[in-house]
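Feature request, filed as a ticket because there's no other form

It would be nice if the structure record came with a short human-readable summary line next to the tokens. Right now we just get the raw output. Example of a typical job, pasted below so the devs can see what we mean:
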Amino acid sequence: MNLPSLHLKSVLGAAELLGIAAGRAALERLGKAAPTRVDAPALLLDMSGMELVTASAARESLLKLSEVISQAGALPVFVNVNAATLDELRFAAEALKQPVVVASTDEQGSLTGAFVIGTLEPTQRETLEVVSQLEEADAKTASQAAESAAGVTAWNNRLSNLASLRLLQERKVGKTKLYSLTVKGLAYGN
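Raw output as currently delivered:
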């Protein structure tokens, strides 16, 4: 699946974002470039060519942009993030207790190695793992496959919670809600 993308360096016209002021200025430019509606499960935020984004700049720009993209209906996925910026992004995501999806792209533009950084509670991590193993699940199937003793209602809430974070996609078949990973192969941590 070809996912829409936003090349951050092209929008920003710079390879570095350092500090709060730069982050706030970047948010204004990125906000104007970001779509208000996304008709795809994810929007790729391509960071190729970005040399460094500090945690303070990421907090003021990238993580706020993530919220805008989620409200537009898509999971924001940061792709092609270098190691230094990944450390900074991880620090900012953990400080805000915000899950952030990071991945790479291959030569064809397909996502590879998608993982969540930031904070997911243990039950959220378990839910992500169960759905990943099953590929698609409703609350009953997930509760039966899980190691925890949580009931179907608890699993329905867990699945719905991860769908609200855009980590899972939801589709209805009759009265049953089925959930799958928004990004194939998505896992917690790296």
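Something like this underneath would help us a lot:
The CA atoms of residues 14 and 50 lie 8 Å apart.
Residues 20-33 form the longest helix (14 residues).
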